[in-house]
Amino acid sequence: MGQPVRVPAMGQPPGAARRLRGLARVWPRFLSAAEEAALGRELEPLLSRQRYQFDHWDGAIQGFRETERGRWGAASRAALERAAAAAFPPAPPPLPLVHVLDLHPGGHVGPHVDSVKFCGCTIAGLSLLSASVLRLVSCRDPHEWLELLLEPGSLYVLRGAARYDFTHEILRDEESFFGGRRVPRGRRLSLILRNAPQPP
Ligand SMILES: O=C(O)CCC(=O)C(=O)O
Predict the structure, then answer these.
(1) Is the CB of residue 143 less than 8 Å from the CB of residue 179?
(2) Using an 8 Å Cβ cutoff, are 70 and 46 in contact?
(3) Which residue of 9, 35, 39, 156 sits 20 to 30 Å from the alpha carbon of 129, by its own alpha carbon?
């Protein structure tokens, strides 16, 4: 595993990049090909039983199926433990259930901030199958934004201000560009780890 990088896309205003230094990070090629294959093998039978939903009640996510999983085979568990060690502070650790999101090629995750009722200071995601662009936009100033390129096999982490003060979204295929470069959005699987909210 190399050092995390946060490559700013061309034309990004520098304010968000400065504000989110160390708080929004990507580790490209975090997973080995064997780990990606093991995770995919384990998830495919669970996901393929479901239909993609295009009518989510609050519209935040469209064209998706999802599950939560707490029991993993050895290879998948090792990869998730490595991700947890890289992305999370010592406390609170990630919750035991991993949220698995399967996004249809025509689906997207709209801008939202994860509810503070269910998620603490850190969100981390492993991406499989298709590359995508994750966009962060300041809740205070929509001109302050940052985009991260999520290649298959990468790990991202959002913590602190990146998690609380910016919305995050996964761009739909038609809008999926990174620094002027087209990033075609096919079917994408993500495994999202979150820690528990801290008591006030
Ligand atoms: O798929 C991802 O990486 C992000 C998903 C997300 O934002 C969510 O489920 O709240």
Answers:
(1) no
(2) no
(3) 9
Backbone angles phi, psi at 120, to 5 degrees: -85, -145
Q: State the first-to-last Cα distance of the chain, in angstroms, to the nearest integer.
A: 35
pLDDT (tens digit, 9 = 90+) per residue, 106-155?
Answer: 999 999 999 999 999 999 999 999 999 999 999 999 999 999 999 999 99
Phi, psi of 181, rounded to the nearest 5 degrees: -90, 130
Give the pLDDT score at 28.
98
Say whether pTM exceeds 0.90.
yes
Is the CB of 170 inside a 6 Å radius of any atom of ligand 1? yes
Nearest CA to ligand 1 atom 2: 190
Query: Would you say how long the chain is, in residues?
Result: 200
* DSSP letter assigned to residue 95: P
Tokens in use for 150? Answer: 């999520």
